[in-house]
Amino acid sequence: MRLPILSAAFSLLRLATGLKIATALNWIEHTPQPYAIKNFYKGSSAATLSSGGVANLASDSSFDLAANAETQGLKQYAGHRNIRLIYVICEVPYRIVANKAAGIKTLSDLKGKRIGTMASTSAGVFVHNMLSSVGLKESDYTTVSGQVCMKAPCASNTFPQMLKNKQIDAFGIWETAVELGAQALGDNAIIFQNESIYREVYSLYSTTDKLNNPSKRKDIVAFVRALNQTLDIFNNKPDSVYQFVASAVNVDVPVLKAVWEDHKWTGTWKPELLDFLVEEDAYLAQTDRRQAIPRAELQKFLDTSIIEEL
């Protein structure tokens, strides 16, 4: 009679001591994590996802891992030098969709226009980088805040509907909102994208404390190994995961398919990522009114040790 009680107690203990991961649950980029937990993870303790991000690693020591774009990683690392970027889940060259009827044919034509984005996020960095690449200063255009829509019909306060209603002339954000904005405009839509200027580097983070804990490290390695197996499926058998991803973030499968190729399921990174982070942090330091992180410190931020154990 006691066996069920003991089994339940063990399950609760496993969850309580398990791998705790903070991640934004609304976006396509996060979806390899639940897929990996469901299909491949074989750690000694349960892995659970909670809504959040890399800020949780800085504020709550119960979290072992977090996933976010590189922008949030840099913002947190500036004040918490124990955070480490250990794996790249996805790289996404964001897109700007603009209304040709507003006289927009080139990026330069966004001068004087109203551009939807989210300040202090990867999307805000993206819009800044794209427009500065053609010589536009932030004073040359107006940024407008709004909400993200992932599935039509879109509410009036979301970027796709704001674009359709001519409240803004363009917007840049993560998918599937840009695709929905383009569909809303139809033939009047024009897209701007340049991976060499900006791409989101959606990454997995941990802390030196967790990485130096032998039992916790084993489970982190097991989770990253499961992510590697998942990315192989996402890259080579996407038809088998479209429905899973669409259900996880509440998007329509045809829209998901339209933006799938913009998501590069990479796993690791190339040496040039350090230069990319140095440049982005210089901009973030200005907007956040802090000192830029020295290059040598950013080199410590990139920790390949977990990948090397796979």
Structural account:
- The structure is a single chain.
- The protein has 310 residues and is α/β, with parallel strands linked by helices.
- The chain folds into two domains: 12-91 and 200-309, 3-Layer(aba) Sandwich (D-Maltodextrin-Binding Protein, domain 2); 95-192, D-Maltodextrin-Binding Protein, domain 2.
- It is 43% helix and 16% strand.
- It contains 14 helices and ten strands.
- It has helices at residues 3-16, 32-39, 55-59, 70-77, 122-132, 159-164, 177-185, 208-211, 214-236, 242-249, 253-260, 273-288, 295-301, 305-309, and strands spanning 19-23, 47-51, 65-68, 83-92, 95-99, 114-116, 142-144, 170-173, 189-192, 200-207.
- It has a five-stranded mixed beta sheet, sandwiched between helices. The chain has a five-stranded mixed beta sheet with strand order 7-6-8-5-9, with helices on both faces.
- Helix 2 (32-39) packs across helix 9 and helix 4 crosses helix 12.
- The longest helix is centred in the last third of the chain and has 23 residues, at 214-236.
- The chain is globular.
- Residues 5-15 have low confidence and may be disordered.
